[in-house]
Specification:
Layout: E1 3-11, H1 14-31, E2 36-44, E3 52-58, H2 61-72, H3 75-83, E4 86-101, E5 107-114, H4 122-129, E6 135-143, E7 151-157, H5 160-172, H6 174-183, E8 186-195
Antiparallel strand pairs: 1-3, 1-4, 2-3, 2-8, 4-6, 5-7, 5-8, 6-7
Length: 197
């Protein structure tokens, strides 16, 4: 099971940050053992609007911790982050539970979940979402500080309108409701991000 570290950041020069990532940053972290990385910015999400999320996928927790240390000790990356005014507000470690489709699309929806987490329901949800989404991933929070949320549901899409309709159908599915009742899981809130890199 892979893990993902997500840094929620404030960035003064978003365009410069994306350019730096595309020109050398992404390759630098991949050379450190990162399996996948993505940058997105919250465009709908209460007080989180404008925050930039940077995700890094690693083979396991030890690799994630070592990778984060490597990123923060790389002179070129540190210089680029300093030049762009990057300030890390929060960093969380998540376990990938299940995934369907691919991590591609103009937007990412992130639903914060509370209660117990389960690998059940992914196929039921994907059955409703696959016509409106490119990818679906469920995660379990391992380290995130004091938090009401215990996991997330990420969905990649090119149409938020289409995704909203499909999501409503997924949540209303009797099988999904039965799983939620059994695990005590419930959605706590959603943010919408635009994929930048």
């Amino acid at each position: 099971m892979t893990v993902i570290t997500i840094a929620i950041t404030s960035v003064d020069d978003v365009a410069g940050f994306v350019e730096g990532s595309n020109s050398f940053g992404k390759q630098a972290v991949m050379d450190m053992g990162c399996l996948h990385t993505q940058i997105s910015q919250t465009i709908m999400g209460g007080e989180m609007v404008g925050m930039t999320g940077v995700s890094f996928e690693w083979n396991d927790m030890d690799a994630a911790i070592a990778g984060s240390a490597a990123v923060n000790s790389n002179a070129q990356l540190v210089q680029m982050m300093g030049d762009c005014g990057v300030k890390v507000m929060r960093r969380s470690l998540l376990e990938v539970v299940e995934e369907r489709g691919e991590r591609a699309g103009e937007f990412i929806s992130c639903v914060y979940m509370g209660g117990g987490s389960s690998s059940e329901g992914i196929d039921t949800g994907w059955g409703h979402l696959k016509g409106s989404a490119n990818g679906l991933m469920t995660t379990r929070l391992y380290a995130g500080g004091p938090a009401a949320w215990t996991g997330t549901i990420f969905t990649w899409t090119d149409s938020v309108t289409s995704l909203a309709s499909a999501s409503a159908n997924a949540w209303a599915d009797p099988q999904m409701q039965a799983i939620q009742a059994k695990t005590g899981s419930q959605p706590l809130g959603r943010i919408i991000n635009r994929v930048l890199a």
